[in-house]
UniProtKB/TrEMBL annotation:
Main location: membrane
Membrane disposition: Multi-pass membrane protein
Source species of the chain: Solimicrobium silvestre
GO cellular component: plasma membrane
Keyword Cell membrane attached: yes
Record-level Gene Ontology MF annotations: ABC-type transporter activity
Keyword Cell membrane: yes
UniProt-listed InterPro entries: ABC-2_transporter, ABC2_TM, ABC2_TM_bact-type
Lineage, highest ranks first: Bacteria, Pseudomonadati, Pseudomonadota, Betaproteobacteria, Burkholderiales
Subcellular location: Cell inner membrane; Membrane
Protein family membership: Belongs to the ABC-2 integral membrane protein family.
Keywords: Cell membrane, Membrane, Transmembrane, Transmembrane helix, Transport
Protein name, UniProt field: Transport permease protein
TM ranges: 20-42, 160-184, 205-236, 242-264, 276-294, 327-348
Length: 355
């Protein structure tokens, strides 16, 4: 009997969810757009995606030609402009770095706002210039340290999109729990929906289980579509067990759905909940490594981020998806995530109320 009630609630919840276009966009279309956009922009696995604007005041000298060849060897894409054109581009504020030739000397300008992009370009130009000088003097070029592209698990050398895709899977779970689950809970309570449900024989645990099932179904569908796009556009595929991925998605969904219900229990209306949800969502998104690693952040911040619920989930998802890791090798990540899930579920269950 309970199973029939559960499936009826599950189907009803899915029908309601599918009738909200904005919810479908944020859960399915948004991750795909982010993967394609950021994966394309930051997707270069070498220096081939780095462009350098070069401003010249006169015809090419032999040194210019040699430097161009050296920079091409290093993988830089060059765009040659006149000083006037280069200055106009510089004033637009979009150039991270600009190489200029003034008389017999070269100089470089780095946009202070974009130094994170500009300084790697400077390093490559300096390296190319040293190569030119060594060749001109007839001296032996200094040996460069070999560079090998490899993932942390050493399984393959996937592009940035391979790092991003598991991050977006985890972000989807967070968005589903904090925004979808919590917001719906507050709205139903505010509009009296739970009061009407309280007068029915519907058991509370059946309702909560069905709501978790709805969100898990949507998450799995969104994950399948995201991985399909990743395979078709970027050639990245799951290197591990799909069962392991499913286990992580279920555990993550339970964790963040419980978080959504717990946050909602402290909010009397949607406006208050919006503040709560953003206060939790933004730090988790920024500190857990969804888009980029926190390796350059202060050590205390890294240690704090390590115990957040999203961080171990992303670590586990990347280990399975990119390096084919087994769940048994992810003991610490699973322990932290399971601990958060249990804590949030217990607190959410204690605080959940119909009215």
């Amino acid at each position: 009997m309970y199973s029939r009630i559960f499936f009826n609630q599950l189907l009803m919840g899915l029908k309601i969810y599918l009738r909200v276009p904005s919810a479908m966009f944020w859960m399915i279309a948004f991750p795909i757009v982010m993967l394609m956009g950021m994966g394309t922009i930051f997707g270069g696995s070498s220096n081939s995606g780095i462009k350098l604007v070069w401003s010249q005041t006169a015809a090419d000298s032999s040194e210019d030609v040699s430097l161009r060849h050296a920079l091409a060897e290093l993988g830089l894409t060059l765009e040659m402009l006149t000083p006037t054109q280069a200055e106009e581009r510089w004033k637009e504020g979009k150039l991270p770095a600009l190489l200029e030739r003034q008389g017999e000397r070269y100089s470089m300008r780095v946009n202070s706002y974009l130094s994170g992009q500009g300084m790697p370009v400077v390093s490559l130009v300096q390296q190319g210039f040293l190569m030119v000088q060594a060749r001109a003097l007839g001296t032996v070029e200094l040996t460069r340290i070999p560079v090998v592209m490899s993932s942390p698990g050493g399984h393959h050398d996937g592009p940035y999109a391979a790092y991003l895709l598991p991050g977006l899977l985890g972000l989807n779970l967070l968005m589903m729990g904090v925004f979808s689950t919590g917001m719906v809970d507050v709205t139903l309570r505010e509009k009296g929906g739970y009061k009407r449900l309280a007068t029915t024989p519907l058991p509370r645990h059946i309702y909560l289980a069905a709501q978790l099932g709805v969100r898990l179904t949507v998450v799995i569908a969104a994950a399948a579509m995201l991985m399909l796009v990743g395979a078709l556009v970027f050639g990245i595929t799951n290197q591990g067990s799909y069962l392991s991925l499913l286990v992580l998605l279920v555990l993550g969904s339970a964790c963040f759905t419980s978080m959504g219900y717990l946050l909602a229990s402290f909010a009397r209306n949607v406006d208050v909940y919006s503040g709560f949800s953003n206060m939790v969502f933004l730090p988790l998104m920024l500190l857990s490594g969804v888009y980029f690693s926190l390796d350059s952040a202060p050590v205390w911040l890294q240690r704090g981020a390590d115990i957040l619920p999203l961080t171990p989930l992303l670590k586990a998802l990347r280990a399975v998806f990119n390096d084919g890791a087994s769940l048994t090798s992810l003991g610490s990540s699973l322990a932290i995530l399971a601990g958060w899930t249990l804590l949030l579920f217990v607190l959410a269950s204690k605080r959940f109320r119909w009215v």
